[in-house]
Specification:
- By secondary structure, the protein is of the alpha/beta class.
- It folds into two domains: 40-238, TIM Barrel, CATH 3.20.20.10; 264-407, Lyase, Ornithine Decarboxylase, Chain A, domain 1 (Beta Barrel).
- It is built from twelve helices and 20 strands.
- It has helices spanning 22-36, 47-52, 55-65, 75-83, 101-106, 116-129, 155-162, 186-204, 217-222, 319-322, 380-386, 391-396; strands spanning 2-4, 16-21, 41-45, 69-72, 89-92, 109-113, 135-140, 168-174, 211-215, 230-231, 264-276, 281-282, 288-289, 294-299, 332-335, 338-343, 351-354, 366-373, 376-378, 404-407.
- An eight-stranded parallel barrel has the order 3-4-5-6-7-8-9-10, surrounded by five helices. Strands 11-14-17-16-15-18 form a six-stranded antiparallel beta barrel.
- Helix 1 packs across helix 3.
Length: 408
């Protein structure tokens, strides 16, 4: 039975929704745990509203499946987890903004740090709150992505400085891989070497953080040498993985795909049907003109819901996009177990579908954007390729106005 989660007492009326299988989510967590082994702790990454799946339902489901750690972007995301009943450890991956240290500590969040000044601010906040226990922090190392992370040249000064903070425990040290799924990537090999060098530097200063983590989803799937004793899967939990490959794009045959289940389906309904003559421009700018008489359905979904405008089918394809990937601009949906192309430009609230070949297509028919209908299936990967983006963006862009219906 589906349980619809609403933010108010209003009745859900808009025919556009996402179905989220919590049983599939728990299955994926167990698959990953079996893959890495019982000695490796999983930090379930649930940032960005659990990759668009609804964090207030997904995080407790993952905790039920055995998750002891959760990864979030920021303090406010961590507070949401506490408010929905999550009792496990919560790692704030991008650290704390100045001034929110006390709020984070009150909610027992574990901050990442990448400057000594951050650790000092956390120590002062712990002193003001008169905490009985030391505050655990995780140090992020910049091994080559050049985003957040302490440079290796500053690591020794950090090590000496953090030892002078009695309120602080250096519990973990981590970094992030830029191309973990490309198994012959030389830059990734150098990142791994720099991370190992950072561990040695800390050890030389008598610092031995018990938790060491480097593996994101791509590394969890194909790089056992990066697992250490703590991994941070995100995309894997939601049913998708980057197949390990080489730089030339060829697959790696000695790495088996994990038996994951997609967690999310996205659906809507046909709102209107019209028979159009040949030569009829459709939608904004007349970007698609019917080459022959066609039956066109209007469905209740658009870029306001997270459907990319790049997915639209245009006459003769779009020369600005077609060189990027041959599937860009070839968006499809499933109706009555059959594929139907998206035609014309996607607008904010409505999208047009050519249902000429769908016998009996009718107002009210279910339209599957992501998911299965009959024997056909469209994955978030498929939608991402048609939109010239990554599956992460496709899932995370699902807007708040799309109700999530969570099923056990």
């Amino acid at each position: 039975m589906l349980a619809t989660t609403l933010t108010s007492s209003r009745i859900e009326t808009r025919p556009n929704w996402a179905e989220v299988s919590l049983s599939a989510l728990r299955h994926n967590f167990r698959v990953v745990q079996q893959h890495v082994g019982a000695d490796v702790t999983i930090c379930a990454v649930v940032k960005c509203n659990a990759y668009g799946h609804g964090v207030e339902e997904c995080a407790p489901a993952l905790e039920q499946a055995g998750a002891k750690w959760f990864g979030v972007t920021s303090t406010d995301e961590g507070v949401v987890l506490r408010e929905c009943g999550v009792t496990g450890r919560i790692l704030v991956l991008c650290g704390l903004y100045p001034g929110e240290e006390e709020e984070a500590l009150r909610h027992s969040l574990t901050p990442a740090v990448f400057r000594l000044e951050q650790a000092e601010s956390i120590a002062r906040a712990a002193a003001r709150l008169a905490l009985a226990q030391r505050v655990a922090i995780h140090l992020k190392i910049d091994t080559g992505m050049a985003r957040l992370g302490i440079p290796l040249t500053e690591l020794e000064a950090f090590a000496e400085g953090v030892k002078r903070l009695p309120q602080i425990e250096l519990e973990g040290v981590f970094s992030h891989l830029a191309s973990s799924e490309v198994l012959d990537d030389e830059d990734t090999a150098r990142q791994i070497e720099r991370y190992e060098a950072a561990l040695r530097t800390l050890a030389n200063h008598r610092l031995h953080p018990p938790l060491r983590h480097l593996a994101n989803s791509g590394a969890v799937a194909g790089r056992p040498n990066t697992w250490h004793n703590f991994v941070r899967p995100g995309l894997l939990l939601y049913g998708y993985e980057y197949a390990p490959s080489r730089h030339d794009g060829s697959p790696v045959t000695n790495v088996s795909a994990l038996p994951l289940k997609p967690v999310l389906s996205w659906k809507t309904h046909i709102l209107g049907l019209r028979d159009m003559p040949a030569g009829q421009p459709l939608g904004y700018g007349g970007a698609y003109v019917t080459p022959a008489p066609a039956r066109i359905a209007a469905v209740s979904v658009g870029y306001g819901d997270g459907l990319s405008r790049k997915i639209s089918v245009r006459n003769g394809h779009d020369p600005a996009l077609c060189h990027i990937h041959p599937s860009v601009g070839h968006g499809e949906v499933l109706i009555r177990g059959q594929r139907s192309p998206i035609v014309g430009r996607v607008s904010m609230d409505l999208t047009l579908i050519d249902v000429t070949r769908i016998a009996g297509a009718a107002i009210g028919d279910e339209v599957v954007l992501i998911g299965r209908s009959g024997t056909e299936q469209i994955s978030a990967w498929d939608m991402a390729r048609c939109s010239d983006t990554v599956v992460y963006e496709t899932l995370c862009n699902l807007s708040k106005r799309v109700p999530r219906r969570h099923a056990e």
